[in-house]
Amino acid sequence: MSEPVLQTRDLRRSFTQGETTIHVLRGVDLAIAPGEIVALLGASGSGKSTLLQAVGLLEGGFDGSIRIDGAEVGKLESHERTLTRRDKLGFVYQFHHLLPDFNATENVELPRLIQGATFEDAKARAEALLTALGLGTRLTHRPNQLSGGEQQRVAVARALSTRPALVLADEPTGNLDEKTADIVLAEFLRLVRGEGSAALIATHNERLADRMDRVVRLHDGILE
To answer: What Gene Ontology molecular function terms does this protein carry (predicted)?
Structure first.
């Protein structure tokens, strides 16, 4: 069997408020295979976002092991964490966070340019992804000229622009109406599978989770 793209062992996170210690993650063990799309279910406040922040190397303070593409990354220094995020990970959030002064193509180009790609390569990659998501006629539109579903498609293309080994998504359709959410999720899953990336997608929507390869549930800080 191939090595997991993501593997966590005994991952823990606690917060202290006054004299009270809140244990958000109590020892999370998770492995995701190359190309596997996993739904992360859990009630609001169950720690889904905290788990994504941990494996996305977005903040410290975690105990346990985080391995991405076979390398231990949980205790890396800030610069090395940044490089790992740049080269190995893609992110999609509930709110798209597009740069308002950049058009759709430019928003998607940016991660590739930061990675060191040429302008021509970044542009070609951005246009190919946006076209695959049905935005071939919207390449030069700015975010305020796009619908909510279109903006989220741009965010999906941006996350995949660097060909990440692992895509992390936190309620990626949570800000969309049901019909648009279904369409965007279907396109998201199709494109992730086509790219061969793995994905961990946090959602509270059981119906959407059933469309993924596997479902894990976070309850009381532990995966079930």
So the answer is: ATP binding; ATP hydrolysis activity; transmembrane transporter activity
Domain ranges of the chain: 6-223
Distance CA 141, CA 64 (A): 44
The pLDDT of residue 207 is above 60 = yes
What is the tens place of the pLDDT at every residue in 132-183? 888 999 999 999 999 988 998 899 999 999 999 999 998 887 777 888 888 8
- DSSP per position, 65-99: EEEETTEE-TT--HHHHHHHHHHHEEEE-SS----
CATH class assigned to 6-223? alpha beta
Q: How many Å apart are CA 173 and CA 104, to the nearest integer?
A: 18
Measured from the Cβ of residue 24, the count of other Cβ atoms closer than 10 Å reads 20
